[in-house]
Amino acid sequence: MKAESLVMDSQNCLKLLPDSFNKRRLKLSYFTVNNYLNEIQTLAKKQCLGNFSWPEIDKVNAWMISSETATFMKAGGLGMIASELPEAFNNTFAQKGEKISVVTPLYLGDTKKKKAVLVKNVYTGSERNSIEISKAAVIKVPFIKQGSEKLEDITVEVYLGKFANTNYIFLANNHFFSINPHKDNPSAQDGCYVYNEFGVNEVERFAFFSKAVYVLIKNLYEGKVKGIDLPNALIANDWHSGALSGLTKYFTRAQAEVGLMDEDLAEELYSLPIIHIAHHMGYQGWDYENTTRILNSLYEYTALMVFKNAKSIKNNNQRAKNTLIVHDCYNQASCNFHLADRVVTVSRNYLEEVSKETDFGYDFRDILKIRKDHRNFVGIINGYDKKLISPNKEKIAAINQYFSGFNFRFYDENHLDAKLHNKEEFIRLISKIASDKDYKQKTIPLIDTYKFSSIVDDIKNPEKTPVLCMTSRLVEQKGYDIAALAIENLVKKIREQDSSLEYPIFILGGAGNPECFEILTNLKDRVSASDPKIGERIFVFRGYRDEFAYAIQLASDFYLMPSHFEPCGLTQMEAMAKGALPIATSTGGLVDTIEDGVDGFRTAAFFAGNQTVYGTMSLAKRLKNNEIAYTQTLERALNLFYFDPEKLHIMTRAAMLKDFSWDVSGGSVFRYYSLLKHGHI
User: Fold this and answer.
1) In the chain, N or C terminus with fewer CB closer than 10 Å?
2) DSSP sequence for 423-488
């Protein structure tokens, strides 16, 4: 350690960033004092250009750093990959002595939708799975709490446990990881994303999480914590752990520069490879108001030094010239996009979208294009264990018991007659919900239904009646606006067709925002006004009940996915496994997972604003927009249903046979293994 370097305080090297620096102009002057600061200045460029070789890894011992896990705290696909990738990896490679462990917060509290408790040594997460844990260590994490101006050592307890074949490392601190909501918590924020009882928001929570992971790793290298194997690679699961590479690569260099860290230790932490997984690029971890406090919490008294030297790679975006902030705002994803050793996104087509279009790549489009061109940005499709999504005898039996008086049947790709029976049962079920208020209140009390009508007497031939469902979250991303306009266009054409054809049944809804629900209610009202017979077959609801959603998919012929964007998508995989052919826009992972005309349907063109993102220019000129393109795709699917049922049967069987499991031959777990082992796929 260079004790004499501490005199550099007079050169403004050991100072916090000034309060609210991002709200006024702070002049940046890039200067070189020695190799450490020069490395900080040039690191983003070197990382994006892939100028560093991947370290030799004999046996993989990686940590998956994740805010969510499907096992203990799930909100979406981010949590699925955090549980399923390590489990599949360990199943496949454990015999070789290689493994992935999961590092995640130990959440405690009750949001009324999500509940997590620790009783003695048994932790039960919000997904109702329990794990026996033991305390392995206590670490001190320097951080500045809201309302304070000083760094304080915050206690974090480290717990270990094993679930199935995967080791879990839980980090516990009630202040940051409580999920008890604040009285001002927005209703849409739940689980690990709540604004909690102590006034901690999601960005601050996960900045602290990143810092705690860094401190734990540093303690392991220093020998202060025993009983936990040192990782030889880190997998940062989206923006939540986006501060990690700044800590391991910037902070260590700055600490060594001023003599606060041994140079050998700094080099070990600096050299630990980080793979950043990017899910939806629109979620980046922004926090304008707390920019100063979070950066000072992460980089402590070298924050000013780090910030003044955190130079982005040269790009066309004037908003992203510094790796720690974007447009004067703390951005937690930014650091890993610039500094991680590898960046992965969750499908190959989404990789192309985010590296070409600012509508998809946002402020990082140019940086990701540079990374793609230099082969350190790759696309790997999320896996999905087929056993979890194929028709399940036990779950179907539970549905029959839950709804009482109904007899849904198990089916597979070789016994599709039972799927027709399920359609008949679902027509009965939805008609009973419409006609029997007491039954509706008993079975789906938290689901709001809109003008449901009984159609059981109107359906003369269920086999000839197409059922189309859309039961994803009610959010803008899912394209309910596209669906509504396309259905209206379709209805106009249906009236012109052979009147002997059975009108389709549409089942549309899910949990989410009222604006999307209003799009659907307006659709039903408009169609009903012009043609009541078609309108009564449009079922619109808001809310979620697993048994209801499962029954819908068991009965449906088609699943609507008119997404505005879909980085990977899991819903189309679930639908295909149940023989509901997806009808999708050609965006993101939908392009990679749905083979048009073989196991589903995709639009011939896809647009982001006025820009053609997918399809030839001639097709784009003819189709004009996503609504027209989606209408045409709906028509193709229904024409096949009405006029070529044999072809439809072949497609349904092909969809059910498709296996997206992580560990199938050529599956995504082998791509991650190659990436961890060699730095490429």
Assistant:
1) N
2) HHHHHHHHHHHHH-HHHHHHH-TTPEEES----TTT-S-GGGS-EEEE-S-BSGGG-HHHHHHHHH
Rounded mean pLDDT of 299-321? 91
Neighbours of 666 (CB within 10 A): 7
Q: Quote the CA–CA distance of 415 and 429 in Å, as a whole number.
A: 22
The pLDDT confidence band at residue 9, using thresholds 50, 70 and 90, is: very low
Nearest to 211 by CA among 293, 322, 328: 293
Report, as an integer, the average pLDDT of 232-246: 98
Distances from the Cα of 43 to the Cαs of 36, 262, 318, in angstroms? 10, 20, 19
Rounded Cα gap, residues 406 and 429, in angstroms: 8
CA-nearest of 510, 524, 532, 553 to 450 is 524
DSSP lists the bridge partners of residue 109 as: 116
Give CA–CA dist 10/106, Å, rounded.
42
C-alpha 93/C-alpha 112 separation (Å) is: 39
Are the C-beta atoms of 589 and 599 separated by less than 8 Å? no
Gap between the Cα atoms of 217 and 215, Å rounded: 5
Backbone φ and ψ for 502, nearest 5 degrees, come out as: -70, 130
Contacts of 646 (CB under 8 A, 6+ apart): none
Encode pLDDT of 137-159 as tens digits: 999 999 999 989 899 999 999 99
What distances in angstroms separate CA 381 from CA 67, 191, 482, 560, 621, one per listed residue? Answer: 20, 26, 25, 21, 30
**Token pair for 252:** 């260590």
Three state DSSP letters for 557-594: CEEEECCCCCCCCCHHHHHHHCCCEEEECCCCHHHHHC
The pLDDT of residue 193: 97
- With a cut of 90, say whether residue 275 has pLDDT above it: yes
Kindly tell me the burial class for residue 49, based on how many C-beta atoms sit within 10 Å of its own C-beta (0-12, 13-18, 19 or more): middle
- pLDDT digits 0-9 by tens, 637-657: 999 999 999 999 999 999 999
Q: What is the mean pLDDT of residues 251-264?
A: 94
Question: Which residues on neighbouring strands pair with residue 137, listed in sequence order?
Answer: 158
**Residue 316 or residue 189, greater confidence:** 189
Tokens of residue 624, six digits:
């004009």
What per-residue confidence (pLDDT) applies to 29? 59
Chain mean pLDDT for the chain: 93
Q: pLDDT category, 7, cuts 50, 70, 90?
A: very low
Average pLDDT over residues 382-391: 93
User: Cβ neighbours of residue 110 under 8 Å, at least 6 residues apart?
Assistant: 116, 179, 180
- Distance separating the N- and C-terminal Cα atoms of the chain: 39
What is the distance between the alpha carbons of residues 137 and 159, in angstroms, rounded to a whole number? 7
Q: Lowest mean pLDDT: which of 30-44, 507-521, 656-670?
A: 30-44
Residue 216: left if φ>0, alpha if ψ -120 to 50, beta else—which one?
Answer: alpha
251 DSSP 8-state letter: I
Report the alpha-carbon distance of residue 329 to residue 290 in Å, rounded: 9
Question: At 88, is the secondary structure helix, strand, or coil?
Answer: helix
* Cα separations in angstroms, 95 against 60, 333, 442, 610: 12, 35, 50, 52
Rg from Cα positions in the chain:
27
What residues does 616 pair with on adjacent strands?
Answer: none
Distance CA 116, CA 194 (A): 13
How far CA 258 is from CA of 5, 37, 152, 469, 586, in Å, comes to: 5, 11, 20, 61, 52
Closest CA to 131 of 158, 84, 166: 166
- Residue 283 has what pLDDT? 93
